[in-house]
Amino acid sequence: MKFLDRHSEMGRLEKLALRQTAGLVALWGRRRVGKTRLLSEWCRRHAGLYTVADQSMETVQRRYFAEAVSEKLPGFNGVEYPDWNSLLRRLSSEARAARWKGPLVLDEFPHWVAASASLPSVMQNWIDREAAADGLLVAIAGSSQRMMQGLVLEASAPLYGRAVEAFALPPIPAGWISEALGLSDPVTTLQAYALWGGIPRYWELAAPFGSALDEAVDALALDPLGPLHTEPDRLLIEETPSALSLRPLLDVIGNGCNRLSEIAGRLGCPATSLSRPLGRLQELGLVVRETPFNEPEKVSKRALYRMGDPFFAFWFRVVAPHRGFLAGASAVARKQLWKQAKPALVSKVWETLCRAAARDLVGEVAGPEGRTHWRPAARWWQGQAPEWDVAIATADGRQGAVGEVKWSERPFDDAALRRLVKVMAMRALPPGLPGAVERFLFVPAVCGKAALVHDGVHVITARQVLACLR
Q: Of 451, 470, 192, nearest to 314 (Cα)?
């Protein structure tokens, strides 16, 4: 698949390589998010060397690493290295003789650490001395997000403070999936993103199917032989330490339990015991804690927990509860199960994307003066009162906006838009908004001649939302 996006992340890496900055780079992110592709592309552009760890014995790992280094420094594999210290010191010596400054990438670094607990301390001394003196740029990366963060961000860790760059690689924004899958219709693009999310490996698998989304989801995820049929379990097991114990929480949240008390009740445990496992799921990007607009995030008692990854939301709603059925069902029956769940799944993701794009879209309407001062958008709800899907205000509280999000595969005509605008006009605004409030109606598509402003309400389509998310 074509290398897409990653302008910000590549820019940070490029700056280091172009300036020949010596030091350590640390990068982490969930599996399949594109770390290998980003780092490989970076190495290709700057004559670097990409290596990856195996889950093997320490001696075998060093041998494999020496083999990889010999591609850049011939003869490096001609010696059996007794420890990492001797290997790294020879590496910097050979690199100095060859006038090679890197970048040197050590991917899946946690596998090396698991086999040799002293390696971070050895790396610290090497980074501080030989690598620094020889001007080497070294990058470590890993899918075990907790371990990678611990290695470079915890004050007690040997590599703490050594990284000249340290960041997590997030999923690719929704606006890029149309290019990856060759889609031209915004509604189809939204449906595809609601299934695959921003994970490039899923896009790569889905690309041969093009716009045939139902065929793709059956072949890749619903069919028991599909490569993604057991994907969440694999991802949880491969975390270090394993996150498989968090699976029950995902089952409960994925099937509609969103309040902490409901989750605890379904699992039969005290709510106070869930803060740590829920926190880890949030670290992994699999669960999002959502608080109402204008409420303090940390102390809100009305917080809800929802799936933070579209593919996981689909899998725990469609695949997990029906594994037995899917094992013996025909392709037609499997796809019917997906089609029943699709509208609700797509609608939720569409809401999330509208909130993500709201700051830019509202800023365009409000004018350039306030464009950069809008806070992130949130949802607002309270008891039985009608909720607002989008609520947003400026940092100084002088301007605000609200929005209603509607989903349909069919375009909305003028009559339908007028009805929705009329309902919006009768709804009370969320507390905390200023007197002057802009109103927005988000719909996937409108009929050809439908007006994009109705009684002062701005109609926003999927094409505009996706354009913001690039």
A: 192
Helix axes of 119-126 and 84-97: crossing angle, nearest 10 degrees: 30
Coil, strand or helix at 232: helix
Question: Distance (Å, rounded) from C-alpha 185 to C-alpha 389?
Answer: 24
Q: Residue written as tokens 């999310």?
A: 197
CATH of domain 7-168: 3.40.50.300
Tell me which amino acid residue 289 is: R
| pLDDT tens, residue by residue, 295-326 | 888 777 889 999 999 999 999 999 999 999 99
**DSSP letters of 266-330?**
HHTS-GGGGHHHHHHHHHTTSEEEE--TTS-TTT-TT-EEEESSHHHHHIIIIIGGGHHHHHH--
Query: Do residues 169 and 427 make contact, with C-beta atoms less than 8 angstroms apart?
Result: no
Structure tokens at 465: 């939302």
d(C-alpha 392, C-alpha 283), whole Å: 25
Each domain of the chain, given as residue ranges in start order, spans 7-168, 175-345, 348-468
Match domain 348-468 to its CATH number in 3.40.50, 3.60.21, 3.40.1350, 2.40.10.
3.40.1350
Report domain 175-345's class.
mainly alpha
* Cα–Cα distance list, 210 to 127, 214, 215, 415, 426 (Å): 46, 10, 10, 33, 42
Average pLDDT of the chain?
Answer: 92
Measured distance CA(272)–CA(281) in Å, rounded: 16
pLDDT tens, position by position, 32-50: 999 999 999 999 999 999 9
Q: Same topology for domains 7-168 and 175-345, yes or no?
A: no
Q: Is 117 helix (H, G, I), strand (E, B) or coil?
A: coil
**What backbone torsions phi and psi does residue 311 show, to the nearest 5 degrees?**
-65, -40
Q: What is the pTM of this model?
A: 0.91
Measured between alpha carbons, how far is 323 from 74 in angstroms, rounded to an integer? 51
Name residues whose C-beta falls within 8 Å of residue 420's C-beta, 6 or more positions apart in sequence.
404, 406, 412, 441, 443
